[in-house]
Amino acid sequence: MSLELVAVAVPVPLYKTFDYLVPARMRGRLQPGMRLKVPFGRRQLVGVALEAPREAGADTEGYRHVEELLDEEALLSREVLGLARWAADYYRHPPGEVMSALLPGPLRRGQPAQLPEDPGLRLTRSGAAALGELPSRKKNLRKLLQTLGPGPLPRSALPRGPALALALESGWIETVPATALPFALAETPPELTPEQAAALAGLQAARGFDVALLQGVTGSGKTELYLRRVAEVLERGGQALVLAPEIGLTPQLVERLVQRFGEGVAAFHSGMSEAERGKSWLRARSGAARVVVGTRSAVFLPFIRLELIVIDEEHDPSYKQQEGFRYSARDVAVLRAQRLGIPLILGSATPALESLHNAGAGRYRRIELSARVGRGAPPQVQALDLRGQLLQHGLSEPLLGKVQQHLDAGGQALLFINRRGYAPMLVCHDCGWMAACQHCDARMTLHRGRRRLVCHHCGAQQPTPSRCGGCGGSKLLPVGEGTERIEDALRNRFPMVRTERFDSDRLARKGELEKLLADIRSGDIRILVGTQILAKGHDFPGLSLVGIVSADQALYGADFRAVERMGQLVTQVAGRAGRSAGIEGDSAPTAEVLLQTHEPQHPALLRLITGGYPALAELLLAEREAAGLPPYSHLALLRAESMDAELPLRFLAAARELLAPHAADVMLSDPVPALMERRGGYVRAQLLLQSTSRAALQKVLAAGVTRLDGLPDARKVRWSVDVDPADLF
Ligand code: ADP
Ligand code: ZN
Ligand code: ZN
C-alpha cells in the first residue's frame, strides 16, 4: 500500500505548511479541517489539516507521522479553511498562526470539541406511531409526544424529566439544530418610517453577493434595518453575523437582538472568558447560534449557514488588527460575503473614504438615511474662533458661557477632547526643559490624579518631578490640555452640577461605564468630558450642547488619515447631541455643536462646518487622488525595529534589494526612520510599498516576504509586514 502525506498548518511563525505521513490507522478518516497532533522539533503541536491526504511519492524519507487525530469530523469547513488561507496569503502572515488565531483557546490547545446539544426536538415517525399505542397511564410521555405533534420545538419549551429522556432513548423524538426550529419574533417591531421603508427595500434588492453602504446618522434607524434583514435570514433558517468595532458596544446590540429574537443570539469578543468564547464558537459551528454579535475576530467564526454579514460603524479603525496577524475585518468580511454569495451591509454615519470610493465606483450600493427617527437631522457644527480669545485651561469664555446657558435651560453639555491625562507636556518656565520619555521620542503626559508622568506610547511611568530636570528650578508648568484638566476646569467653574470624565483611565473598572451612562440618562450628570469613548454608539437624549475643545492638531497630523479621522470623530460626537426643539413635551434648548479652533479658515474645517462629513469626504478624496494615496493606490508597509540603531535601516535596505526585481508597477520607498523613531527603547524604521494595482503589490509581497527570513539581519531585528496599513507610524 502506498503511503499518504497531508499538508498541515502548524502554529509556528514560518511562512509555510508542513507535510506529515498519515499512519495506516487514520487512513480514510483524515479530512481537511481536522485538528491533528503532530511532532515538531522536540515538541508536539496542534495543527490543522489543510487538504485531503495525497499519495506520497516513492521518497518518504524525513517525513514524520501524524500522532493523533483530535477530531472525528472536520472542525473547520472548507469555506473557513479557504477564507483563512486567503487571509494568510493576502496579509502575508504565517498560515499556521492564522489557523490557530481562528480557534478559541481550548480548541487551540487540543481539547475535544464538544458541540452543544441541539436546542430543538422533533417527533420521529416511530414516535408518531408509538403515540397511538401508549397506555393512557403514561401521561407525561403521551403529553410530550402530543406537544411535538405539530412540529419541532425548542427544548426550553418542554418539561425536562424522565419522559423526555425515555422518548429520546426510544427514538420517538430526535434533536434538531436551531435553524430547523420555527422562527418567531420575540417582540413586535416598530413600524418603519417612510425613509426606513425605502432604505429597507433598497437593501432587499440585493441578489447574491452584494455590498450595501448604509449611510445614516446615529439614531437614524440603521440598527432597526439590520434587525429586519437579520429576521429575514433567520426565517429561512440561515445565520447572521453582526460586527461592532469594540467590546463596549456589543452589549447594547446583543440586548436588542435578544429582545427581538429571543434565544439563539450569541456574543463573541475578547471581553469574554476563553471558555465562553469557545462556547459561542461551537454554537456558531453547530447552528445553535443563529445570530452572533462580535468584534473583529468574529469574522472568522465557523458558521454552517451564514447568509448575512452586518458591519456597524464600518469606518472604525478598530476593525484593523494592529499587531501580529494584521487583517482588516471589514475587508475579510467583503471577501467572505463574496465567496459565499451573500449580502453584506456596511453601516456608518461617516463611512471610510475607501467605502465611499467603492460606492462611487459602483462596487457598493449606497443607501441613505438622512433624518433621525422622530427627530430632525443633528445640528450643524459651528466654528468658534479662538484667535485673540482668552483661554482658561483651553476653554474660551464664549464656550463656557454656552455651557452655562444650556445648563440653565435644563440641558446637558459634552466636552470632547481626544487626549487623556491632565496635560501633554510638563515644561520648565525658567529654561524650557520638557519632561521626555527615556524610551521614546515623545513627551510624558502629566496625570495629576495619579501624580505621575506617563508615556502614552510605551506606558513608562514616573512620579511627577518637583524640580526641573535641566536647571533644577521649581516652576514646572503643565502645557496643553487633556481630559483631566478640562474636567477640573469645569468642576471649578460649575461647582453646583455633577461633571464626569469618560476616558479609559476613569472607566478601567468593569461596569463603571454602564453606571455612569445610567446617571447621564437620569440627568444626574450634567456635564460630560471625554475622549472618543463618548463618540461611539451611545445615545444621550438630554444632551443639548457639544463642545469640541480642539481639532486643530489633526489638521497637521502626520498621518495621511488624520483629517478623515478628525471629521469622523467630530461628526460622531456631534451626533450625540440629543433632542432638538420640537419633540413633544420637550423643554430642552435647541441642540448646538461648537468647535473651538485657531484655524476657522482651514479648507478642511470649512468643508466640515458648511457641508458636514460628506462635503469633507469629497474634498479629502480629491486630495487623495491628487497625491496618489489610498483609496487611489494600495499600500504595504515593511517595518523593522531593534535596540541597535543601525540595524533596522540596514535590514530594510537589504529587503529593498530583495524586493526590487519583483516590483513591477510598485513603488518602493527608501528605508526611512519611523515618524517616532524611538519607541519603548526600540529604534524603528520602515519601507513603504505603493501601487495603483493591488495585484502588482500582492505579487511583489508574494515573491519577497517569505524570503526576508533569510536575510542576514532578519533574526536580529523585529520585522513585520502590514498590508493596507491603517496608519504609517
Ligand atoms: P441607529 O442604529 O442608526 O443609531 P437605531 O436603529 O438604533 O438607529 O434607532 C434609533 C432609535 O429609534 C432606537 O431607540 C430605535 O429603537 C428607535 N427606532 C428605530 N426605528 C424606529 C421606528 N421605525 N419607529 C420607532 N422607533 C424606531
Ligand atoms: Zn528648567
Ligand atoms: Zn515611552
Structure description:
With 729 residues, this protein is an alpha/beta fold. The chain folds into 5 domains: 4-109, 3-Layer(aba) Sandwich (GIY-YIG endonuclease), CATH 3.40.1440.60; 120-176; 194-369, Rossmann fold; 380-422 and 480-625, 3-Layer(aba) Sandwich (Rossmann fold), CATH 3.40.50.300; 634-723, Alpha-Beta Plaits, CATH 3.30.70. The chain contains 20 helices and 34 strands. The strands form 8 sheets. The chain has a 7-stranded parallel β-sheet with strand order 12-13-11-14-15-10-16, sandwiched between helices. Strands 1, 2, 3, 4, 5 and 6 form a 6-stranded antiparallel β-sheet that branches. Strands 17-29-28-20-27-26 form a 6-stranded parallel β-sheet, sandwiched between helices. Helix 1 (78-90) packs across helix 2, helix 5 packs across helix 6 (162-169) and helix 7 crosses helix 8 (222-235). It is globular and about 95 Å long. Residues 190-193, 196, 216, 218-224, 373 line the site of adenosine-5'-diphosphate.
Percentage of residues in helical conformation: 25-40%
Q: Low-confidence spans: pLDDT under 50, at least 5 residues?
A: 580-585
At the first level of CATH, the class of the largest domain is Alpha Beta
* Lateral strand order in the biggest sheet: 12-13-11-14-15-10-16
